[in-house]
Structures are given as C-alpha cells and as structure tokens.
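Page header: ASSEMBLY MODEL / three components / 933 residues total.
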Amino acid sequence: MPQTEAFVQRIDKALANHQARQNLRATMDRLKLKRLQQFPDKRQLDDLRHQAKSIRQKTLDHLPELLEQLEEKLTQNGIQVHWAETAEQANSIVHDILSKADAKTVVKGKSMVSEEIDMNAYLEQQGIEVIESDLGEFIIQLAHEPPSHIIMPAIHKNARDVAQLFHQHFPELAYTEDVDELTLSARKILRNKFASADAGISGVNFAVAETGTLCLVENEGNGRLSTTVPDLHIAITGIEKVIEKLEDLPPLLNILPKTATGQTITTYVNMISGPRKDNEKDGPREVHLVLLDNTRSDIHSSDEFIDTLRCIRCGSCINHCPVYVQVGGHAYGSTYPGPIGTVLEPQRIGLKQMGDLTSACSLCGACAEACPVQIPLPSLINRLRAESNNQQFGNSRTSGKGSLRNRSEAMTWKLWSFTHARPWLYAIFGWTASRLRFLAPSKLGGWTKYRTAPKPAPQTLHELARQQGFDNE
Amino acid sequence: MNNARENILKRLRSKPRDTNDLQDNLIPDYGWDKEKKIERLIEQMQAVRTEVQRLGKNQWIDWINSELPKRKLNRVLAGSTKEGLAFKESAHHSLEVQDYSQNIEQFKATLFNQIDAGITTTRGGIADTGSLILWPDEQEPRLLSLVPPVHIALLKSDEIYESLAQAIESQHWENAMPSNALLVSGPSKTADIQQTLAYGIHGPKQLIVLILE
Amino acid sequence: MEKPENIYFFGTCLIDLLYPKAGLAGMQLLQREAINVIYPQNQTCCGQPAFNSGYRDEALDVALNLLQCFPKDIPLVVPSGSCAGMIKHHWPELFKNHPEENAVKRLSAQTYELTQFLTDVLDIKLEDLGQPVKVAIHTSCAARREMQAADAIEKLVDQLKQVEKQQQHNKEECCGFGGTFAIKQADISGAMVEDKTRYLKDTGADLVISQDCGCLMNIGGALEKQGTSPATKHIAEFLWERTNATD
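Prediction written out in full:
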C-alpha cells in the first residue's frame, strides 16, 4: 500500500537522523519541565483543566447558536463574516476579498488553519505575494517546508540551518549563527513588509460570541503588525474556535500559554472587535472573518469524536508524545502532527490516506494527561483503529472506514480469538508452547532487531496454580 | 455563500447536545493588597526584561526628560491624551516630540523610520501576569505602542487588578469592547531559532513601565 | 474497603505463558495475608491485544470467556496495570449495550492492579530479609495513568529497608512496548526502548522492577540483547523473594 510505504520511509529517515533526535529530545525535556513548573499543584492543575474543558464543551453543545451570535455581533461591529464549507471555498473567498481590494501583497500571522487549506500555495498561484511574518513560519517558508509542530513550526531547525537559509536568501547580510543577530536580521527584513503590504491575514485563537471579538495571542508582535498596519485584515478560523462569553477568556488565556510553552502569558493578547473607527488614526478599514468547516461539522455530529473539537491548539500533547520525540513532525506527513494530528487528520482527510497514523502510537496516555481540555486522545485513536478495519463500526462520518482492513491480519485475530475464547483450546496451545519452548524462534522480525526473543516457561501459571492447590472457583 | 452557511448550521443542528458535569468559571481570588499587587506585577514584568520604575505621579515627565537623552532616544511620539500633551509641553529641549495625530497613511514613513520611543497611558495593569491593559483609541492609536522600538507606558499604581478576570469584571468589558483592546506583558520576543530566547523581534525591543503612585 | 475473605486472581496471558513465577508470587503474597485466592482455570486473556488493534468483535469474544470466570461479587486482582486497565476502563466500553453490561460494571468497579490492592486494600506490611540492592522502578503507562498505581509500587518498595531506589530520567515516559505497537512500528518502538534502557543503565541500578510483564519483556529483552545490566523482575516476584530470604 503506497501510503504505508511512504509513512515507513518518512519514519526511517527520521529515526536515522540521530542529531535531530537528540535536539528534539533536549527541547521536549525542557518544555515539559517548564510546563510542570507552571503547575506545581496537580489537583489545582486538574481543576484548571476541567474548567477549560467545560468552557470548550459548552461551546460545542451550543455551537450553531454561538456561531450565529458571533456573526451577528461581528457584523454589528463592522467585521464581515464569510462561511466556507471546504478548503477550496475558503481559499476562493480569501482570494475574492483580496482581488476586490486590489491587494497584491499579503503579510501573514501564524495560522494553522491556513496551513490546513494550503492557502499560501493557492494565493501564490493567483499571483499574490504571501510573506510569513512569524519567525518560525518565515524560516520554513524560506526552506519550502511545512511546519513540524503546531506552535513551533521550525523546531526541527538549528541555528546553523537558519544561518544558511538567511545567507542563501539574503546574501547582502553577513553570515552569522548568533541567534540575536539572526533575530535582528529577521526584524529588518520583515519590517518593510509590514509597512508596505496591502493586506494582513491571520488566524484566531478564540472568537467571543458575546461581544463579537477576535482574540489572538503571540510573543513576537508580528500578529499585531499584520492585523493593524495594512488597510485590509482577513482572519480565518475553524468553526469550533468560538467561545460564549468574554469571561470565558481568562481561564483559557491562563492555561493556554502555560501548557503550551511554560509561559505565564504571551507577550501580546490582541482583541479585535472592529475595523478602524471614523476618528481613529490606524487599524484596517476593512476586517473580515472566514469561518471554515472542512469536516468539523461532521466531527461535531459524532458522539464519539466530538471531543476532538475541544482542542485549543496548544501542542502539549505533541510535547509529551514519546513517539513524536523520536520521529519529529515531518514523519507524520500531515498538517497536524503528533497525537492531535493522529486523531484529526484521519477524520479530516479520511482513513484510507491517514489511518496509518494511528499505528504510530503506543497508547501510553501521556497526551491525554497533558491536554488542557481533557481530550481522551488514546481512546479516540483506538476508535479510529477500529474504524480502519471495520466498515460497520461506530456512527461517525469518517470517510474510508474499513479501507485499511488487511486480510491476513483479520485472519490472525480471528484465529487468536477462536483459541483464546475456548479455555480447552487455549490450554492445549499453552501446554504445547511450554513443552516445545526450545523450538521457539529466536528471530522474530522487528521484535528481535532490538531485543532477545521471549521463551515460554516450562510450566504455565494454570499448571502451577493447580499444583499449588489454588481454588478453581 | 449563503448555501455554505445554511449547510454548516444544518449539520451542526443535526445532533442536539447537553453535556453534564461541566464546571462554572472560577475567578481566582488571591487576596492581594495594593502593595502586594504592585510587587507581583513588577516581579512578573522583570522576569521578561521589562524595565520598571516606581515614581511619584508628577515625576514621570522629569524621569523621561532625564533618561531619554542619556539613552539617545531623542525622537519621541506621544498621544493626544492630556498626559501626551502635557509631556509635549514640558519635554526636554533635546527631545523632538511629535503627536500621532495624522492618519497612518500619511504618517507611516515617519512612524516606522523616525521615532525612537512611543509613550502611552494604560487602562490599568494585571498583577498575576505582569500585564498592561491598553485600549487604543483616536488619542493613542494602535501602532503607538507597537512600532517604535521603545514603548514607555504610564501605569497608575491604584489601577492594578489581581487578574484578567477581575479586570474584565471590574471594568465591565462585556458592555462595550473597543475596536482594539490589548494586553502587553513585555518586550517582543521569540524562541523560534533553536529554542533560544531572543528579544526585540517585531514589536518593541524595550518596554519601560512607569508605575505612578 | 475491608480486607476480603476471597478474591479472584487473573494471571494474564503473558504471565501464564512467559512469566508464571511472577503470577504465582502474586498469588502467594495474597494468600500469605490470609486471603483465599481463587484462580479460575478457564481464564485466558482480557482481549486487549485485539481491542488495541481495532478488532473489537474478536476482543469481545475472548473477554466474554474471561468475564464468565468471575461470577461472584468479590474483588478481582491482576498482576498487570495494562490488563487491569483493560478490564476496569475498556470493558465497560466494549460491553456497552451487551447483555452482560451490568456484570461487567460490577466487576470493573472492584478490579485492582496487584500493587494497589496490596497497599490500598490490605495495607500490607513487608519485612526485608534480602541483601542490599539498588533498584529502579518502571511503572507502566497503564499502571500509572489508567490504574493510578504509581504511588503503590513506590510505597511497597519503600518498606524494604535494604533496597535503595534510583530515579531514572524521563521516568514517566513510555518504554515503547504498547503491545502490538512493538511489532507494527518496530523501529519507533526500538528507538523508544533504546532511550529507556539508556536512562535505566545510567542510574547504576542492579535491577529494574515493574508491575507489568509487557514492559519487562520489552526492557529486559533489550538489555539482554545489549548484553548489559540491570536485570529485570516483576514486582510480585521481587517482593516474594525479598520477604522470604531465598537469596
């Protein structure tokens, strides 16, 4: 199966890069520690998580009403609202808005939704220049790579990589691997772009229905610049990012930076409730919000999978994943990597293409433990595995159910089930294995590549229990 | 795209929901007095390289007049609030003070290239996160606190809240949000290169908070 | 909960075939506390391997056989965090809308992983009769997160005065076993156990002990292949040996 092969190749390539693995390990160790330092009291942390979960679940319980209220308030405030069912529609809407304003250059704040719909490529094809302004996104734009993490897109690059990239694209600047100097270069290069761009495009962290407010968090200032300097601002978000009230913001703003990067708060919290008013001196005169569905409403309709939509895109699950730390984000071959990606992508794109991701998980549960909105990620991954093999399973609208069913694996489990559901048959198998244990193979494919082969014991526990006289019932 | 709107809402309505066991929002209550709030605010701010000065409420103009020339921050931008105008009135002769009174379209080149520091007032501070509350308006536009490489903010010591939740509740934000409301908690920073912290990427490289008693 | 007179013991299929001495030690520890340990001979497997592979119907058939081994309303003790977790947390899901759903709920409410039963229910007292030894404790992901039994094993070992506990780096991280994960994603699993064994070796411990034989098979097998210490042992066997002066 081509998908599996491609996935295997990406994994192999990632595992072979020992330096990258070491770097990623050091980074994740540090992030986990910083997060822990923000939450010294476990019970308090669980309270905060339950609070955040409640806010997000409340939204999902009332999603259609809240979206309508959001639209009404935003419109009252002078922000134009657009609805897009698919990626194509969203891109087309954004392009239309830009065309009408005769906007040829766009400066972008970080937006995972825009990555999800491949917005940059679409706009560039239409002859629009798109410049990423978040430093991490800027770096990967120069490198023509996708992000490898949802918060830190260039986490896989070290200072030397960045130095080489900058020198290659901006030869007029002296070569340096010093982080402060590279940062200063980026500031200089991008400053002019902020000043001259026709439009700014951004994501949204939370959209408040009560007041018609778009809330964006960031550390660099590029988000504020992109959404304030150009005359036109287009924000794009998934429909699940709405929250009910302004008072719902503080608990979310409290937990999000702490769990994502170990910060108490991001440098800037930017709350946009309207375009430039008549007497104001700056700010965009035109502000738009594009609401993107792209299978979210299908996920919403599933009792089993709706929890997925509570996600606030913090990346904590990724930071705690013992698989991600070994293979890095690009191995997943998806927009969203790690545990949340493993749950989201098969639902968004289909099990046939993305169902494989669910095999790259040991179901350890570290992700669910870290999730600030208590998404039961391993449980969802396990469900997706069942859906991959079984067309009839569950009530979700995930596409490609049963498409990864493998005949020989299915037979193996049928045989396993047949023996293990029948104690007499199981006993024969156990007895045979123990008596013939010297014939147990010492080479067992992937297992013995890294470990010695297990050998059956001379007697089973069933036998020992009988011999020791333990009651049978 | 009305079709899209109707289709999306219809799909979302196909499964009515009501989850149990949800919790109401809790506003943190630290029980901090004024001095403790100031202390906590300063601690949080200094941890991210914000410069903090505690001054008498009439000393800030003198402080700016004495410090900025020393630091070679001679080209200053102020708003047209009473503080901004007062400063312009009494600025040190070596400082060239403008007010941000033109539209950005006419002012952009100056703003981006010829201003060393911008001064704004604030709508209060938040102690638990070390944050300033800014509501830009026609007197102090949005970019005043963002484009100049140094941002000087005037914070009244008795306008410091324990938490954002307390600030929102006390100031009744839900009644009328401005077109732009901001929390500023330090100079601009990034750790996108090799996870190494670097300051002054796109926003101001320096944030100076003058706490006025 | 008061000390019960009778309990069921589910040895697990892994222990049954590969590590029966660990299972026996668990039963003997419980028996020594004056509890009648019932080991139904019809037990086989909890169904987890198939369940985690997405073959729930096959898992259900096997789980049903196991359920029928435990008809009495008495606690069930399991010398494995992952199998205990399967019964306690995943059987209710697996048996949803099944005729036996109530029986499952009743059973899962009184399913315990061995170490947590020993500390939380029996408040067992242990006297260390063994030689000084340095150990590192590896709590499986299921024991830690599903059964909340991380503290239990630490407390048990703390009672043994000749045992010095070492703390490995990234102690809470998965060892890479994950059941069929170790076969399906063998290289990722290999990378994970490589890191885990390195962290354990770095502690200088003589022995790695765990509530779960799956992890031990993984970690122990890897250390063996690397040709290095530490050795590995299940907690039940370790406790039984330490309190019987057999070495």
